[in-house]
Structure formats: C-alpha cells, structure tokens
Amino acid sequence: MVFLLNERIKFPDPHYGEESGLLAIGGDLSTERLLLAYSNGIFPWYSFRDGVIQWYCPMERFVIFPDEIHISHSMRSLLRKGKHTVSINKAFDRVIENCSRLRIDEEGAWLGEDMIKAYKELYRQQFATSIEVWEGDELVGGLYGVALNGCFFGESMFSLTPCASKIALIFLAETMSANGGKLIDCQLETAHLKSMGGRYIDYDEYMEIIHKR
Fold this sequence. Notes:
By secondary structure, the protein is α+β, with helices and mostly antiparallel strands. It has helices at residues 31-39, 73-80, 92-102, 113-124, 164-178, 191-194, 203-211; strands spanning 3-5, 22-26, 43-46, 53-56, 60-64, 85-88, 128-135, 138-148, 151-159, 183-185, 199-202.
C-alpha cells in the first residue's frame, strides 16, 4: 500500500508499505519531516520524470557496521601513499553540488534544487554531515548524509578520481568506530558497497539499533 501524505508531520507504519519499499508520496522536505523520516528508517527519493517526492522504507536494510568496514589490499596501499587528505564538514555545499551532477540514474533518482536546499538546511542545523577527499587543494570526492543518534544515513557520494568515494567511506567508518557509532545505512545495495562490508539486516533489528541509547 502507498499512502498519500498531507501537511501533517506524520508517516504510516512502514510495515504496510510496498514490497519495493515504497511507503508514501507527497508531503514536504521540511527539517521536522526529514528528521521524523530518518528516525524511522524512511528516506525521500525524488522522481526525475514526475518530480513527486517518494518515501521509501525497505524491510531489508543494507548497512555497514563501522567496525566491519572491509579495506582491500589495494586500498590499504593507496592510503599508505598519503596522496589524499580527508576532512569533515569543510565543504558540505560543494559535496552535495557535486553529487547532484551525478545522481540521475536508470531509476530516475534525482537530487534537484529542493533536495539540495533541504539538506543544506539540515547541515545548518547540524543534522547532516559531509566527508571530503582532497588531492592538495582540489576536492576529488566525498559523501554526505544525515547523522542521528550515532547512526549515519548515507545519501550520496561522488568521485572525480578513482577510489575517492571509497576513501571517504573508510574514513567515515573508522571515525564512527572510534567514537561509538552504530551503523551506516547505505539505502541501496551496490557491488561497491557490498565489497566494503555491506550486508542486509531486517527492519526490526535495524530499528532497535538506531534507537538504542
């Protein structure tokens, strides 16, 4: 079942959503609604074709536990070379704008102006975080997402040079692991994320983790 949202800041029980994970359409991208969504494992997905906000909450969640991040031998070799530096929250706007140039895929996923504005506001209120990867003074990769209660809900990443987004993800996982972080929600499975330790857990276990104090 797919629900139609109105102006009330409320979501239906995700267990009643479609098998695909689609739960609802409509509503808005206010900070209050986005925080409620992420705290229940729900994330927005804009359709490039019709511009409608779609809200997804899959019952099987593809996640990376920070202390399970897999770093390949080739990645360890690259990291040892010291060619890259990594920062947190130094260039959020540049990261999301780079991601917006890349996030139009075969499913119609679209990071348009409304989404960019909403996540910049989350960042301004300290609910969103970016990781930046640099070669000298040049931004070559990064990722951004929402950070709540020791969890990171990944939204998008980009690479302008090979492996830059992997470096960002490794840095995120190692930083979270060192600070008691609980999980990274990847939203969707990719071969790239699976090779780095991504695996599925069910929604109820996921909710227990993200709400555990």
